[in-house]
Amino acid sequence: MFKKWGISTAALLLATAVILPGCGTKQAPKEALQGAASKAAAMTSYEMKSKFVINNLTIDAPSEQSSAMTTQVLSMLKNADISIDGVYQADPMQTEMTLVLNLKGDMTMSFSVPMVMTTEKLYVKIPSIPFLPIPENVVGKFVMLDLKKLAEQEGTEFNPGMLDTQKTQKLSNEVLGTLLAEYDESKYFKNIDPKDANLPEGVDAKQVVQFQIANENVKEAVTIFVNNALPKILDILSKEEYKNLLQIDQKQLDEAKADLQNSEKKAEFDKNLAKLDQYLTVNQFRFNTAINKDEFPVYQDLALDIKVTNPDDGTKVGLSLTGSNQYSKINEKPAFKIGIPQGSDVITEEELQQQFGSLGSY
């Protein structure tokens, strides 16, 4: 189940899982995160700002595998950033966000994509992107995607429950609680002074909790995740409400758990884990969660710097990135800037396909 690359993936999954939700009186770090997770379930509306920056991305491959295209892509992605500004409300469900992508390097470009989602519809504003032949008469319009129809086209049943944020948050709380219970607070978590957390202006935090993994504890962290936490998480996912939410088949969960208990696969995992430092280097992984006086997680920031080596061909990949999420106007009346697109501002998926089809007739 866990091949050489798989253990590296497990390490990153572990880190991602702990990031789930980011509390009053200053509490012990674990207790503060659990309180913030529960409080996050009471967020019925908010405004959000997210940003991720790729500070460095390198691929050192054997000369026969490298290419001019790889070099060009790396040049574009280095220092690239993606930001999302959004507004959310739970009832009736409505989310709008604007994604902005800035690419750097020799092919500098920037474009934004506003999106709106309701219970059954997704609206995506068609941007003008350099070098892509997008018909001018559809640029600036919103293409409407019917989520129910898309599910049917993929041979699955549309499940509006997948958009049930309260149930999703409940699942996140259970998973987070299971993870926190397995890890030594003194090794992986700590409180840091808000004055030292480089919080942006406007973020008023009473407590900041930091989760951190380094080379010294990454093997232990992955082992705990696979052997202790993951079987319990699979049990959580086996609950009927969560299987329906995620549309997971119990057979898949049973097979995954059987793999974890298989002695031969466990031995292979342990063998590969012992050599983890040969192909995974964690120069930095830390994730901070800032919690305000009302115990809401109002700001989170990530710093990641890793190097992964493929032991089969020697390819080395280095990735350094930073990211942040900021939440404001929690449980206030949301102020939607885009609204739900209407009338001539909207085209269907079929109409968009016709417009692209007409390009080929010239």
What does this structure look like?
The longest helix is centred in the middle third of the chain and has 23 residues, at 215-237. With 362 residues, the chain is an alpha+beta fold. Helices cover 36% and strands 29% of the residues. A 12-stranded mixed sheet has the order 7-8-9-10-11-1-2-3-4-5-6-12. It has one domain (4-302, 314-359). A hairpin with a 5-residue loop joins strand 9 and strand 10.
Provide the fold topology.
Blueprint: H1 4-18, H2 29-40, E1 45-60, H3 68-77, E2 81-89, E3 94-103, E4 109-117, E5 121-125, E6 142-146, H4 147-153, H5 165-182, H6 185-188, E7 189-192, E8 207-213, H7 215-237, H8 240-246, H9 250-261, H10 263-274, E9 280-291, E10 297-309, E11 316-328, E12 346-348, H11 349-359
Parallel strand pairs: 6-12
Antiparallel strand pairs: 1-2, 1-11, 2-3, 3-4, 4-5, 5-6, 7-8, 8-9, 9-10, 10-11
Helix pairs in contact: 1-7, 2-5, 5-7, 7-9
Number of strands: 12
Structural class: alpha+beta
Query: What proportion strand?
Result: 25-35%
Give Rg in angstroms.
23 Å
List low-pLDDT spans.
1-24
Spatial strand order of the main sheet: 7-8-9-10-11-1-2-3-4-5-6-12
Number of helices: 11
Q: What number of structural domains do the residues give?
A: 1
> What number is the mean pLDDT?
85
Distance between the termini: 51 Å
Principal-axes shape call: globular
Largest sheet: 12 strands, mixed
Percent range for helical residues?
Answer: 25-40%
The helix-strand sequence is: HHEHEEEEEHHHEEHHHHEEEEH
Coiled coil: 239-273
Keywords: Coiled coil, Signal
Protein name: Lipoprotein
Organism: Paenibacillus sabinae T27
